[in-house]
Structure formats: C-alpha cells, structure tokens
C-alpha cells in the first residue's frame, strides 16, 4: 500500500500531463527515465571497492602452553606468576598414585623373576632360564617406561620465557587430567595473530596468502602485516574467550552441547583460522587484544553486496536454528 499509492498518483499525474501538457509529459518521461537508468546502473553495473574484514586475536603460540603429561594431583609449584625461567627450570611437580602403584608391582614382579631365574640357573635348566631372562628384560623395559612417566610429572620449562598463570598457589592438590593447560611459558617472540574467516569469504582471503594486509587495533592503530597461511579446515572451536559476543567480542557463540557441565564455548558458524605475521611495530600490544584485518579487496556492485548480505543473514538464521 505504501508503494502503490505514490505510484498510482504519479501515473495519474503523468496522464494529466499527457492530456494537457504534452511537452511537460515528454520532459518528465526523459528526466524520469534518465534517473531510473542512472539508478539501475549504480545498483547493478557500477563497481564499488569492497573488502573482507575479519576479527583477529593476539595470543601466545600453542607451543608455549605447558600441559599436564598425565592425570594426577599438583603436589608442588616451583615458580610464581611473572617469574622469568630458563630452559629446564622445574615448574610443577605432580603426583600420580596409579603410576607409583604400577611401578611397585612391576618391581616386585621383576624381583620374583630374578629369584626364579637364579634357581633355574642353579638347576642348569637352560630353557627355563632363557624364558625367565626374556621375561625379566620385558619387565625392565616396562619399569623404565613407568619411571620416565613419573619423571615427566616434574614438569620443566621447555625454553626461556616468563611464567604466565594466575593463582598458582591455589593449584596445589588440584586434580588435573592429561592435556590440561597448567600455565604458559613464553616471551614476546612467542606471540601469534590469528584471524577467523567465514566460509563465505574464504576464497577471497585465500587469494591473499603471502600478500600484505592491513590490521586495525581497537585503538584505531593501523599496521601492515602479511597473511602467512590458512588452516585447510573450518572449525567451530573458539580459540579465545575474548572473541565471544558474551565477552564483548564479534562472534556469536553457544555452549558446548557435548558436555553440559563444561563452560567451553563454540561458535555458531565454523570459521577458518588464518595466521598473520606479527610485526615489530605492534610489540606493545598486549596478548588477548582483539583486532580486525582487511583483505580480499575487489570491485563489487551494490546489488552484489546486498545479495551477499541477505545470504549471510539467512545462513546465520539457519545456523542458529540448527544450534538450538
């Protein structure tokens, strides 16, 4: 109705001009047709430079993360938050009673086999002696493996760096599972920038690998970096909580449905991870800061932009429905 009435009035007015003012009628047709042609050309034909803008997070590299080598309790913490450590410095000592029990059982079995082997040797029973010798060697290998695992429970710094962990003292007698992160040991060279690219834009961004791109920080500082590589598969795993919309970030998230007791967040839409070169000019930017990267510049019409926007809204709606 809000479109039909103005159009109807315009047609009535044009009909009035055609009957009473022919020159005015043709003038209106020419001017209106020209404006319509210009409008259609602007929307469907004239290219406008467009770009892909993606969120970026600054974080420490995964290799700087110190994780538990086995299940167990944290028995002792040897360092404090912010302390600078050298390679090989003890960080944490863990306790695993199951491994200790296995070691005692294997050692007892090894001692028993050693006694039987001496008895067989005294009886000149070469066949039994050979079997027991092989069994003892197997037990010794198992004992060495268990001892190595127990030794690994004293976690040491893999490299020079600064200890980054909160409330280390409260971790004593805390149970951790194998693979859980305990702390980070890193320096400024261990930082990395990771951009998250939607599947809709991945083809345009892949064309930028090896090229310079522009980064914009939250304080509107601009840096020139280089897109080094892109993870070949998309994932919905959220690499940093700061990116989640619930924490003021740009990405819509949901709770991990696979574990109702977990506070792990998942993105509603899978994204590709893209690595950017960390530039010296940004050495003062703190880890955890959110930024944006602009890349994939191309000429695109307004109609094409509108079509992509409608499609992105539809895909986001479908993804949200699937998540619920």
From TrEMBL:
<dbReference type="GO" id="GO:0015562">
    <property type="term" value="F:efflux transmembrane transporter activity"/>
</dbReference>
<feature type="domain" description="CzcB-like barrel-sandwich hybrid">
    <location>
        <begin position="64"/>
        <end position="187"/>
    </location>
</feature>
<protein>
    <submittedName>
        <fullName>Peptidase, M50 family</fullName>
    </submittedName>
</protein>
<dbReference type="GO" id="GO:1990281">
    <property type="term" value="C:efflux pump complex"/>
</dbReference>
<keyword id="KW-0175">Coiled coil</keyword>
<feature type="coiled-coil region">
    <location>
        <begin position="96"/>
        <end position="156"/>
    </location>
</feature>
<dbReference type="InterPro" id="IPR058647">
    <property type="entry name" value="BSH_CzcB-like"/>
</dbReference>
<dbReference type="Pfam" id="PF25973">
    <property type="entry name" value="BSH_CzcB"/>
</dbReference>
